[in-house]
């Protein structure tokens, strides 16, 4: 009894050692990722996917999953799509999966937790595998923001009268960014400098070919806006990075939300983007039996809530919550993918948590690459694991803020060293 108590005290004093040892263990029932790929990220309304419907984007990516993995499609028991803007997302996924070559025994569902939908889909499939409900599944995040519609309808009067937080759920995201900037004194200069670094990192990564092992080319068509004529294109690379972007060029851009403040701009906010990402998950024992390459281990994910008007700071709450559950500290994390919805929230989270900037968004983030809402949570995992492989590092942490006042974070261990 005394020895057990002593061990408990020692573990509390040195949580990182114990936690790191635990998450890096390999067990037959582990949930592992055997494939992690994504489409290029294209500019909404004017890029390579501007005329591509969600069904075709998902269909194309699912075909790539089968092609890249060489998995028997009969082994896939469930597919979950994270998507925000399409109310028929489950219908879209089901039809796309069947057309892509999956049997009608592979089920389909969709989830929507705004900007974390791709991670939520990953968590959903991983939890099913962990509980023994399925042995193999696919998580997808996809968004065609070119097809997004306008602002939501106001809530019922009684809801609005009973809760200011409910009222604040209606605030545009740009307004919440300005709230964060003003409430926590995140200057325009600090936001522009952060954004410049994001662009420069994305440019460096693109020039060096770091994205090559995560991106799969997608063949589609684009329409001439004047004539309606269609022409075939193959989208092969991210369209968001603006090479040679500097702080001086960004600081000249006018505020994007002048009714709410003067610190957030089109240059230091995430880009409106079309794109998708996919993860193939299964039990470790299943992967070994099927001779699938194990890229990484899924450790866990968690979510938290906060005041909707400052939704951007969600990662500053979700990250400590997740790390605490696994007895880890930030020093145990090698690579961090934090969604740059706005520079205001990114700067806040870096400062609040004391994140080592050298570990975070090494290839740039959503400011430079874009933020297809439902895809980002999965895209971050794809990019982060690729960066872990490049650096031969192990522990990946992903996180994002979520509209209406939430934050989510995910934890993974790279096994390709």
Total DSSP helices: 15
Which structural class do the helices and strands define?
alpha+beta
User: Based on DSSP secondary structure assignment, what is the total number of beta strands?
Assistant: 12
Radius of gyration: 21 Å
Q: What is the terminal-to-terminal distance?
A: 40 Å
Low-confidence stretches: 4-15
Look at the structure and give the mean pLDDT.
95
Largest sheet: 10 strands, mixed
The geometry reads as: globular
Beta-strand residue fraction:
15-25%
What is the helix fraction of residues, given as a range?
25-40%
Give the SSE order as H and E letters. Answer: HHEEHEHEHEHHHHEEHEHEHEHHHEE
Provide tags for this entry.
417 residues, alpha+beta, 38% helix, globular
Describe the structure.
This protein is α+β, with helices and mostly antiparallel strands and 417 residues long. 38% of the residues lie in helices and 20% in strands. It has 15 helices and 12 strands. Strands 1, 2, 3, 4, 5, 8, 9, 10, 11 and 12 form a 10-stranded mixed sheet that branches. A two-stranded antiparallel ribbon has the order 6-7. β6 and β7 form a beta hairpin. α8 crosses α13 and α9 crosses α13. 54% of the residues are buried.
């Amino acid at each position: 009894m005394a020895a057990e108590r002593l061990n408990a005290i020692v573990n509390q004093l040195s949580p990182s050692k114990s936690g790191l040892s635990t998450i890096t263990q390999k067990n037959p029932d582990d949930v592992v990722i055997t494939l992690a790929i994504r489409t290029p990220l294209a500019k909404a309304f004017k890029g390579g996917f501007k005329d591509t419907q969600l069904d075709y984007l998902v269909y194309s990516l699912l075909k790539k999953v089968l092609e890249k993995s060489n998995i028997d499609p009969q082994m896939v028991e469930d597919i979950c799509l994270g998507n925000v803007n399409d109310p028929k997302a489950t219908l879209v996924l089901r039809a796309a999966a069947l057309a892509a070559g999956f049997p009608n025994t592979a089920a389909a569902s969709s989830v929507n937790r705004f900007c974390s939908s791709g991670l939520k889909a990953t968590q959903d499939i991983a939890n099913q595998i962990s509980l023994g409900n399925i042995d193999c599944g696919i998580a997808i995040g996809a968004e065609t923001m070119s097809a997004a519609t306008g602002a939501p309808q106001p809530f019922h009067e009684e809801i609005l009268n009973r809760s200011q937080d409910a009222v604040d759920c209606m605030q545009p995201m740009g307004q919440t960014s300005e709230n964060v900037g003003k409430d926590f004194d995140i200057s325009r200069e600090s936001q522009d400098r952060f954004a410049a670094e994001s662009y420069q990192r994305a440019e460096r990564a693109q020039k060096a070919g770091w994205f090559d092992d995560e991106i799969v080319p997608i063949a589609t068509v684009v329409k001439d806006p004047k004539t309606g004529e269609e022409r075939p294109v193959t989208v092969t690379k991210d369209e968001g990075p603006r090479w040679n972007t500097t702080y001086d060029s960004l600081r000249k851009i006018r505020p994007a939300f002048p009714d709410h403040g003067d610190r957030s701009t089109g240059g230091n906010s995430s880009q409106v983007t079309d794109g998708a990402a996919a993860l193939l998950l299964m039990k470790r024992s299943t992967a070994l039996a099927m001779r699938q390459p194990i890229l990484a281990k899924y450790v866990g994910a968690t979510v938290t809530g906060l005041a909707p008007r400052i939704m951007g700071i969600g990662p500053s709450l979700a990250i400590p919550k997740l790390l605490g559950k696994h007895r880890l500290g930030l020093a145990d994390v090698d690579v961090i993918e934090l969604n740059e919805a706005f520079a205001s929230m990114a700067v806040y989270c870096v400062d609040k948590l004391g994140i080592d900037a050298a570990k975070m968004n090494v290839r740039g983030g959503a400011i430079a690459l874009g933020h297809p809402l439902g895809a980002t949570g999965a895209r971050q995992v794809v990019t982060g694991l690729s960066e872990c492989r490049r650096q031969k590092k192990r522990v990946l942490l992903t996180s994002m803020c979520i509209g209406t006042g939430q934050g989510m974070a995910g934890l993974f261990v790279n096994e390709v060293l």
